[in-house]
Amino acid sequence: MIDLDAIVRRFGTTDVLQGISLRVATGGFTALLGPSGCGKSTLLRIIAGLDRPTSGAVRFDGRDVSDETPAARNVAMVFQAYALYPHLTVAQNIALPLAMRGMTRTERSPLGALLSGARAKRAAQAKAVRLVAEMLEIGGLLSRKPAELSGGQKQRVALARALVRDPSVFLLDEPLSNLDANLRVQMRAEIIALHRKTGGTFVHVTHDQTEAMGMADQVAVMLQGRIAQLGSPRDLYERPATRDVAAFVGSHPINLVPGAVFGLPGEVGLRPEHLTPGKGIEARLVYIEYQGAEVLLDVVMPDGTRLRAVAPGNWDAPAPGALVHLCHAPENLHRFDASGARFTA
Fold first, then answer.
1. Computed over its alpha carbons, how large is the radius of gyration of the chain?
2. Which of 23, 25, 44 is nearest to 33 (CA)?
3. Confidence band (pLDDT; 50, 70, 90) for 109?
4. Which of 14, 189, 198, 213 has the fewest CB atoms within 10 Å, counting from its CB?
5. Does residue 114 carry a pLDDT above 60?
């Protein structure tokens, strides 16, 4: 279990992390979701031991590890850029953490092949490499060099190198951002399957909410060095704690308009997918975006308020400039007070 207690990280006079407290349960999958510059990668580096907090504590299973090295914490990190050694084969790249942890410098050298102890260690490492390679379906690539691999294959090698160490914590720093859209979908499924097979504790940094919402059981939305909301993907979508969280979470940007548009005080948020053609408010169609399964509508109300709505892909859309009628369910309205907090009264 990972416990972060009031983590502050200051660079000069700037507080990049402003008192982060977070618990990641043993075997859990937590995503740190936020825009660039919000501090999520800095927080991951602090969990890994690659950086130190200015104040606060990092605890693993109740033990303060704030001053321990990454090796002492038994964490494995998978990076965005794969960080594979180009002159080593896939098998050698995967085995490297085992060699660095379990062999002396002499045993790792070419002369080590003459030592019986080193030969036994190399044989054990080769067996571990084969097992993890089979799990990730890269057994046929072990003799190749990284330059001979596709992006998805390189990512699997990076995952295998992390997995072979049998770490207590897997830390993933935007590992899918360099892949194309189809491969990202495939690798998301493979990481989810890996989490289930290993039962390990995973912390995944991403700016892609599709990754966070689809992979993690707990998501921490980070904005400006703070956790703006922590909860399940469903909580974040259905009950955003603030206007900023509502604006960040969702496949389509939420409509944020004066409450008077819907006959309510304060500010109101309504997701485009919850505003659909039907008997209700009248608006003029500005333009449409056909996206296959759905059609995105940009409309303007008589008072000049612009809204986005979603229609089914087979909707018979009128020409821009036509009047359309849109409906919504009252329970899908999110109300926020003047400070931007969710209205609870």
1. 25
2. 44
3. low
4. 14
5. no
